[in-house]
Amino acid sequence: MALAPGFATAHCNLGHARKAQGLQAQAIVHYRRAIALDADAPEHHFSLGLALMEQGRL
User: Fold this and answer.
1) Euclidean distance between the first and final Cα of the chain, in Å?
2) What are the boundaries of each domain within the chain?
């Protein structure tokens, strides 16, 4: 992340890693950042929606 903080896919992948570790709140932060950087990528929206749904927030 330090080398490419504006790389949306890296944020999405880090969100997946955080989610797998049970860190849902951190995952959501990274999914939102990925969307802010690349709003046209459907996988970022899907990942955020899934994480929010699993928390009962969607």
Assistant:
1) 28
2) 8-54
Q: What pLDDT, on a 0 to 100 scale, did the predictor assign at position 42?
A: 97
Residue 19, amino acid: K
Reply yes or no on whether the pLDDT at 49 is more than 80: yes
Q: Which fold has domain 8-54?
A: 1.25.40
Report the C-alpha gap between 13 and 49 in whole angstroms: 15
Task: Give me the amino acid identity at 48.
Answer: L
Mark residue 54 as left, alpha or beta (left: phi above 0; alpha: psi -120 to 50; beta: remaining). alpha
pLDDT in tens, 17-36: 999 999 999 999 999 999 99
H helix or E strand, kind and range, residue 24: helix 24-37
